[in-house]
Design a protein that fits this description.
Blueprint (H helix, E strand, L loop, with lengths): L4 E7 L20 H9 L6 H6 L21 E5 L8 H8 L17 H11 L3 E6 L2 H15 L2 E5 L4 E7 L5 H14 L9 E8 L7 E2 L4 E4 L7 H7 L3 E5 L2 H4 L7 E3 L4 H12 L5 E7 L1 H7 L4 H21 L4 E6 L18 E6 L9 E5 L3 H10 L11 H4 L5
Parallel strand pairs: 1-11, 1-12, 2-14, 3-4, 5-6, 9-10, 9-11
Antiparallel strand pairs: 2-13, 4-5, 6-7, 6-8, 12-13
Helix pairs in contact: 1-11, 4-6, 9-11, 10-11
Length: 399
């Protein structure tokens, strides 16, 4: 074992260019990091991500982020083999459980039989029931929902069911119970949905509605054993920060932290770094996706990247010699692209430890996100099931 503690930070939706199969998703030309850099015209400053090699892994450097010569760590990209481009697909694949069968999507809304059951269980009428932007749907229907107490039901291009309600009209705990029931309706075999998402919001009118941090994801339970399960079975600690606990339905996790925001998430990372444990800390930072990607807001996206970069500098400074850090993403959500859905992109792979033997190496294009989990398992002498480990490239073993 080279590293006692392994930290993985997922910058949710921070893709680095269209994947080889982007045409299947109508995502040719997507490039989250590239388009954010172009928007900022050289003013995007990411010194810490930069010195880790985030521009080195690209054919064209991110505008404003020079190639590191040398990079302080190793760098590469990963491509996804899962059938979808949702957060669940990406995270499960990282943990050795790619989703090879497409989950159910609902471009024309959910079947009436599901709507009827939701209405009967909740005692509330369901409205909208079609693909919609989350911020636009509460702008368009939120005032009506406040007056009537109805449930705003909507979806996206991903395998998700989202239910929105004003917190003053439907208490958060009631909304959660409705979503828990909805989860039971779409666990297969006829309809299998990746995530049911409770979307509470607040505010006096459509011009001031905001979605709150009380969002909760009710994910499909992992359909097999994950690398986190394997680590726990081998006696190692597994800690989840952010929506990791939701994505894996709490399975394979010893302790979870709920994030209010990216910065709150980084506070939790700092808290975990102060703890003496042997194992794996898995963090998701969702603001890039939820606040800026889906809203096609490159300015906000870039500012969120710069804010994260500052906090990343503190993590780098506080790492112990036997700590390993990997920074990556789960998919793209290009704020400079058409539509409002996730984009099928490769994701960055930035790897650093103060004690790495050979920094400044290219790890190339990994053929599956599962290579990340396989590497973590090999570090802890646990046999990988999926993926090809790059442990030997990044280890501090003295040969």
């Amino acid at each position: 074992m080279s590293y006692k503690r392994v930290f993985v930070i997922v910058m949710d939706s921070v893709g680095t260019g269209a994947a080889h199969d982007a045409a299947k998703f109508d995502d040719v030309g997507s490039d989250t990091l590239g388009h954010v850099g172009e928007y900022y015209k050289g003013a995007l400053k990411l010194p810490n991500l930069g010195k880790l090699g985030i521009s080195n892994l690209r054919d064209t450097p991110i505008e404003g982020v020079p190639v590191a010569d040398p990079a302080i760590g190793d760098y590469g990209k990963m491509e996804e083999v899962s059938a979808g481009k949702d957060s669940m697909d990406g995270h499960w694949e990282m943990m050795g459980l790619p989703v090879m069968k497409p989950l159910s999507t609902f471009p024309n809304g959910f079947p009436q039989e599901i709507v009827d059951k939701l209405e009967k269980f909740s005692g509330r009428k369901v409205i909208v029931n079609k693909p919609y932007s989350g911020t636009e749907v509460i702008h368009d229907y939120g005032e009506r929902q406040m007056e009537t107490g109805e449930l705003i039901l909507y979806t996206s291009g991903d395998s998700v069911m989202q239910i929105a309600a004003h917190e003053d009209v439907i208490p958060v705990e009631e909304l959660y119970k409705i979503c828990e029931y909805a989860r039971t309706l779409v666990n297969g075999p006829e309809y299998t949905v990746g995530r049911i998402i409770a979307r509470p919001y607040v505010g006096p009118d459509k011009y001031h509605f905001t979605r709150t941090a009380n969002r909760h994801d009710f994910s499909l339970k992992p359909i097999g054993e994950t690398d986190m399960d394997r680590l726990r079975a081998a006696g190692y600690d597994v800690i989840g920060v952010g929506k990791i606990n939701d994505i894996f339905s709490g399975e394979g996790i010893d302790k979870g932290y709920h994030n209010e925001s990216n910065m709150d998430g980084m506070d939790h990372v700092g808290e975990v770094m102060k703890q003496d444990f042997t194992g794996f800390c898995f963090t998701n930072l969702v603001d890039f996706d939820a606040m800026y990607g889906h809203r096609r807001n490159p300015k906000g996206f870039g500012q969120a990247l710069m804010d994260f970069d500052k906090r990343l500098g503190k993590v780098l400074d506080e790492m112990k010699p036997d700590d390993l850090l990997m920074v990556t993403a789960d998919h793209g959500n290009d704020p400079g692209f058409k539509g409002t859905d996730h984009t099928r992109e490769n994701v960055p792979l930035l790897v650093y430890s103060p004690s790495m033997n050979k920094p400044n190496q290219s790890l190339g294009l990994r053929k599956t996100f599962s290579d990340l989990g396989a590497t973590i398992l090999e570090n802890f002498n646990v046999e990988p099931v999926k993926g090809t480990s790059f442990y030997k490239e990044i280890s501090n073993d003295q040969d």
